[in-house]
Q: What sequence folds into this?
């Protein structure tokens, strides 16, 4: 079971950008499709984006299409989520985990790290 470490969150103003990183603790992400999920207070966790093992296929929730870009660097065993044009509805704790593509569903043996907090306010 892969253990995840998310980073890159912060507090930013609407319209600005953040880049999140997802790395594995004690292992490698290279052989896994990875998805980003977010959970805001009082809401269910929702899928944001996911990427295939080789990075050749990417998928996005409608709410983030055109604003967020998922990528991976298998040499660094890291998956990124570039978030541009952040909106007031984007704040949440963002997590990454192993998924099955193309539906971006967490795998049966997935795990959740601590996540990284994203806050958007003026």
A:
């Amino acid at each position: 079971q892969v253990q995840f470490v998310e980073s890159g969150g912060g507090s930013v103003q609407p319209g600005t950008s953040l880049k999140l990183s997802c790395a594995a603790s004690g292992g490698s992400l290279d052989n896994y499709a990875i998805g980003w999920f977010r959970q805001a207070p009082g809401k269910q966790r929702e899928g944001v984006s996911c990427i295939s093992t080789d990075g050749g296929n990417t998928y996005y929730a409608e709410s983030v299409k055109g604003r967020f870009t998922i990528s991976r660097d298998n040499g660094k065993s890291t998956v990124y989520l570039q978030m541009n044009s952040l909106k007031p509805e984007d704040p949440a704790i963002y997590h990454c985990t192993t998924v099955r593509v193309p539906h971006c569903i967490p795998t049966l043996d997935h795990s959740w790290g601590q996540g990284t907090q994203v806050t958007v306010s003026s």
The radius of gyration is 13 Å. The CA atoms of residues 58 and 96 lie 14 Å apart. The chain has a mean pLDDT of 95. The chain is about 0% helix and 50% strand.
